[in-house]
Amino acid sequence: MAATITAPLGSHNPGNDPAVYVACLASYNSGTLHGAWVNLGIAATEEDIRECIDYILKTSPTPGAEEYAVHDSQLLPGCLSATEWPDLNQLEEYAQTVCELSDPDFAAYRIACDNAGAVIDEDQFRSVFYGAFDSEADFCQEYYEEIGTDLGPLEAYIDWQDVWRGEFECDSWHSEFDKESGQYLIFSA
Hints:
Layout: E1 9-10, E2 19-24, H1 25-29, E3 35-39, H2 46-58, E4 68-74, H3 78-81, H4 88-100, H5 103-116, H6 122-128, E5 129-133, H7 136-146, H8 160-168, E6 174-178, E7 183-187
Antiparallel strand pairs: 1-3, 2-3, 2-4, 5-7, 6-7
């Protein structure tokens, strides 16, 4: 086994990294389970992922093991987790972008990919993600402060949640509540 794939393979879910569980189909079809989790935080290139898959097939107890399928995944957007054969190049792009992001942006990136229905690059992500806020109202208030809108004493009368619903949500902006951080992730159309 190559040194590059000893760490990303495991029999248990690999913690907080995106991962796929790769199963040998020859074993599966003969009633035996043989596979491993491939941690995409470590096996982050298409070549590394392919190496892990090849090792899983090579170590299969079932003769003639040539095909695999992804039977489970964690922390992947729907465009990658909805198929048993995700595009390995797309897995690489996703894993590499995830590695470049800080923790608070990771959940938002996965949501942005779900919203796009595809793996997007970091620039595309930055163009649609506006940050994490305690509420949609907080986002609206900060947004108008940043663009230099001086509302003076009228600001005390503004219902910023109504501004969200009437100005942003109606214009295809949306928010997703992130349970882990307890904040609203704000996305533009």
